[in-house]
Amino acid sequence: MAYLGRRGHLTLVLRNLAQLDMEQRRTAGAQANQAKRTLEEALARRTQELEDARLAMSATQERLDVTLPGYPVTGGRLHPTTRIIREVCEAFVAMGFSVVEGPEVEWDRYNFELLNIPKGHPARDMWNTLWVDYQDPAGQQSMLLRTHTSPMQARVMESQQPPVRVIVPGKVYRYEATDATHEWHFHQVEGLAVDDGITFADLKGTLYEFARRMFGSERKVRFRCDYFPFVEPGVDMSIDCFACGGKGSGCRICRDSGWIEIMGAGMVHPKVLAGVGYDTAKYTGFAFGLGPERIAMLKYGIDDIRHFYANDLRFLRQF
Amino acid sequence: MKIPMSWLREYVNVDLPPAELAHRLTMAGVEVGEVTSIGGWPGCVVGLVLAQGRHPNADRLSLCRVSTGTQELEVVCGAPNVAAGQKICFAAVGANVFNTHSGQKETLKPARIRGVVSNGMICSSLELGLGSDHDGIVVLPEDAPLGMPLDQYLGDTILDLEVTPNRLDCLSVLGVAHEVAALTGQTVREPDLAYPELGGPIASAVNISVADPDLCPRYTASVIQGLKVAPSPRWLQQRLERAGLRPVNNVVDVTNYVMLEFNQPLHAFDLDRVREHTVIVRRARPGDTLATLDGVTRQLNPEVLVIADARDPMGIGGIIGGAASEIGAGTTSVLLESASFDSQNNRQTAQSFRLHTDATLRFEKGLRPELAPLALRRATQLILQVAGGQACQGVVDLYPGKDNPAPSLTLTMSRLKKVLGMELPLPQVERVLQSLGFACQRRDPATLQVTAPYWRSDIALEEDLVEEVVRVMGYDTVPTTMLSTPIPYSQPVPIVTLRGRVQDALVAAGMQEIISYPLVTVANLEKVRLWDPERPPLSVTNPLNAEQRHLRPTLRASLLNALAANQGGGDGPFRLFEAGRVFLPRDGQLPEEREVAAGVLAGRRGETSWLIGGDALGFYDAKGVVEWLLQHLGVSAAFQPSDDPCLHPGRCARVLAGELELGLVGELHPAVCQRFDIRPQPVAFFELYLAPLLQALPQGERRFRPISRYPAAIRDLALVVPASVPEGEVHQMLARHPLVVRVELFDVYSGAGIPQGTRSLAFHLHLQSSERTLTAEDASQALQELLSSLERKVGATLRT
After folding, report:
1. Which of B519, B595, B583 has its CA nearest to residue B557?
2. Cα-based distances in Å from B593 to A27, B286, B660
3. In the prediction, which pLDDT does A55 show?
4. CATH of the domain at A245
5. Closest of A244, A237, A235, A234 to residue A269, by C-alpha
């Protein structure tokens, strides 16, 4: 300050140069400027030294214990069922299916009758039903908790003409005692494709593609005959067991078979198509259904389905 | 359905190993759940007791000479029933049999028993692992071939089939034999049905009529007189046992045997107990009762079809017999019934009595009437064989339903191709169908006329034939193609998309998703003060338990239960949400399924940490989550004080977007928490209704707002306002000023230094113009304008 400030010695010297003659002015000016530069450089050097020393000092003094835990962030998570349903839907959306949903409380007509399961049909025993307490004034309709997502097949087809390509996730209910593999409340994802020219071969291709997307491109699939009243021919799709690699013997997951059943499917029954007014000579289609909990159990190695809806955070936080 | 391979082989050759056969059946739709083998007795053979004498040193033991066909051996035996001349199961030294003491399989060694060397063992059921009977040795039939390995003679494999409701035929051994034949290229040997008819004409033995033919399309019967009821021979007992039935006596066992063989349930009546030897198939009369074989006396009604004698019901048709006409030790004359019953009525009646017998299991699915006389002849023949007696000449065959034959179906190759996506030559299709027993006629080069065999009552449509063809050929033979039809145009369902966005935003805000059961208890609804006996929620008529009866009208109870169940795990933080449906009854319609997203927040704000204190989550945490969610969705909403019986009266706000009520935020009423035994207090709560939220969503895309090139001026404004003025109101007034781009509340104070009944609100105001740099004067003027308007409207003054 004393030398370089606005009223410093050097500044004053430079300001007073004007009073000198030309020759003196040149010499003194050069000398003063030289002195000023020297001083400024020394000052900058010293400032840097002091700053470096300070930083070195503080870096030593302000050392943190980097092993101490950081600020806790409480993350949220989706329920594993939601995650699996999303994965399943994404796989089918990529194949041109669109996601729709239907009511969980249904009429007998949609849950059974329009699906070729008339009243008194022995196949009704395949779905133990929770009935809703409802007195129909006309005595015609029975209300129930849907036993599968299949009623949306009829609802979707009633509301539009082909082409149809939908996927229907949602809750379903069964009158069933619970154990490690049975729940009275669980989820399904239903699929339906109807048009002129859809074949059994397309069903196989679509479901195979789904299995590859969901479980990896190395997965083998197996289609065998099975029975559901609303399809004909009926199909059960299995994938090779990822626990034992399809070897089978001694495997607890696939019960020695080497295969794990993943979904039921089939060509939509002509009576179902006729029931919604479709021309069965022209239109064919396929339908399928799978259980996201079962897929989650297989994927994550969950041994008891009752974990899903007990809402224990020690379970939910693992996914 | 348990199918013993030894029985199956009587009708069809099986060259495949059991596991391979099981695989082929499973692939073709007849799933084999389990394959059990009986046997594993190396070193055991059929032996003959040549002589039996007293053991020299023990009263209870005998010393036997046993032949194995190739050698004779001395064997000590402790069984009381051993006798010379018996064919027995002989375990030679070195054989593996069960030690009856340890229960383990052990290798048999030569043993010295009370001073005599025993060179093997005569086995009981227990030692062979065939059963628990250890009272005596197994005595084999006289014709058992001496020296044959026991595995070959007694060994078996049982296929346990998981039969789907359509494949009624596979509840019988012959039905499975037809299936096996088709799958392995074999042919079926059907049993011979002939028997000598040495008695009098059947018409003089019994008088039968069908009064209600709609419920009984065919009734056939035979009569056997002079028979002797006794235990069945061993082969018959063994087959029944291996198929899972308990032997009773020779007559009843034959009816069960033929049911398992042909699928046709039969019933045998003691003819001497049939009044006037008259049988009437009729609907029950009001007041009719029947003591059935299961020891229950049942009230009958006209919906029930009974088999009656001249006076009373003797049995419920196709379901269960009556005790009075039961076959017993003293029975000598039998009326054997083989009939068809209406499947629907049979099922209804069985359900009304909760009687699910082996007979209804079959009748309710609809057996073809062609089956009845075949099974009748087979059973008559077998009764004569195992119980003696004489059969009457002829059979009764009342067939009122004979005008309803099996349908004749047309199968075109073009339909096959349309459904399967591959071409099949007609001769190949024809061969497959014929291998299954279908009758085929070629109508033209591309059309077959097909009739199903009598054992298949599940074939009604052309598609059923398509399945028959493709399942026998194997689903593997169908090509694998991708869909090539046009992709339908469709828009995502808005509420489904919205639910996904809400879930994602809540998860991003640190909330854990739960999914809970949609059936709840009255008690739970009372706890959240949402039980209104005047307007009860929908309920199920057959709840699984008393607890889960009502369809939830709210997510609150399940969330609080989940919170209560997890509080043992520590002090939190607990941030739980559920996005699901609640059910609101509507007259004459399905209920409204309202989409709700609700959450609870309780416990510590963060995990236990050395960095931060243990503040409790509260109202403003729940509100923060809702604000975050709404901001994420681009919805601007106001929070208005409100009340709700479940929530703390002073800590509850409605979330409003204009007229739309989007939901509620609050803290739970302490009394509600107490009822759920929730320890952490407070419990913050929010509930959002997705339908109005959907309406509140901004239309169209978000619009970009240019970022001002001019700097913002930041001014602090500390106001003293009456305590009754909500901050939100002040906040909004500040935000509405054209130069104010952002308002941040940084302090709320009441107490010393400001008048009672007021509080101080301190804001950072960001002032900015998009046209120029604001001067100090511009900022002061804006503050002046705000202050005077606040003073006028809410009585605010500058805090000094």
Report:
1. B519
2. 98, 46, 19
3. 84
4. 3.30.930.10
5. A234
Residues B76 and B171: their CA atoms lie apart, in Å, by 45
* Annotated catalytic residue, options A88, A127, A154, A187: A127
Domain housing A85: 80-103+149-316
The minimal CB distance from B610 to the residues A68, A143, A171 is found for: A68
Min Cα separation A233/chain B (Å): 5
Longest C-alpha distance within chain B, in Å?
132
If we measure between CA atoms, which residue out of A167, A202, A209 comes closest to residue A188? A167
Q: Does A44 map to a domain?
A: yes
- Which residue type sits at B524? N
Number of compact structural domains in chain A:
2
Residue A141, CA distances (Å) to A110, A200, B58, B758 in order: 10, 34, 78, 63
- In angstroms, the CA B161 to CA A150 distance is 27
Q: Is the ipTM of this complex over 0.95?
A: no
Instruction: Establish whether A107 is a catalytic residue.
Output: no
Greatest Cα pair distance, chain A, in angstroms, is 127
Size of interface A-B (CB pairs under 8 A): 244
Alpha-carbon gap, residue B446 to B435, rounded angstroms: 19
Q: B162, B354, B459, B475: best mutation site toward chain A, by most A Cβ within 10 Å?
A: B475
The arrangement of strands across the sheet holding B313-316 comes to B207-210, B278-283, B305-308, B313-316, B320-321
B765 DSSP β-pair partners: B715, B743
> In terms of Cα–Cα distance, which of B430, B428, B426 is closest to B445?
B426
Substitution target in B457, B466, B515, B542 with the highest count of A β-carbons within 10 Å is B515
Same-domain check for residues A248 and A308: yes
Map B690-738 to HEC letters: HHHHHHHCCCCCCCCCCCCCCCCEEEEEEEEEECCCCHHHHHHHHHHCC
Residues of chain B with pLDDT under 70: 132-133
A286 and A177 belong to one structural domain: yes
Q: Please tell me whether residues A153 and A52 are part of one structural domain.
A: no
pTM: predicted TM-score of the whole model, two decimal places? 0.87
Angle between helices B413-420 and A200-215 (to 10 degrees): 20
Collect all residues with Cβ–Cβ distance below 8 Å to B671 and sequence separation of at least 6.
none
b/e map B393-422, b = 16+ CB within 10 Å: bebbbbbbbeeeebeebebebebbebbbbb
Q: Which phi and psi (to 5°) does residue B262 adopt? A: -100, -15
**pLDDT reported for residue A1:** 64
Which of B487, B518, B581 minimises the CB distance to A185? Answer: B518
Q: Which of B347, B511, B574 sits opposite A122 (nearest CB)?
A: B347
Tell me, yes or no, whether A44 and A157 share the same domain: no
Residue A264 lies inside a defined structural domain of this protein:
yes
Residue B277: Cβ within 10 Å count:
17
B697-702 own/partner pairs: CB under 8 Å, 24+ apart: B697/B498, B697/B633, B697/B634, B697/B635, B698/B634, B698/B635, B702/B634
Is cis: bond before B573, omega within 30 of 0?
yes
pLDDT tens-digit profile, chain A (319 residues): 677 777 777 677 767 777 777 888 888 888 888 888 888 899 999 999 999 888 888 878 888 888 999 988 888 999 999 999 999 999 999 999 999 999 999 999 999 999 999 988 888 888 899 999 988 877 788 999 999 999 999 999 999 999 999 999 999 999 998 988 899 999 999 999 999 999 999 999 999 999 999 988 888 899 999 999 999 999 999 998 877 777 777 777 777 778 889 999 999 999 999 999 999 999 999 999 999 999 999 888 898 999 999 999 999 999 8
Question: Touching check for B503 and chain A: CB below 8 Å?
Answer: yes
The pLDDT value recorded for residue A147 is: 96
Does residue A269 sit in the same domain as residue A301? yes
What's the number of CA atoms in the CB half-sphere (13 Å) around residue A159? 9
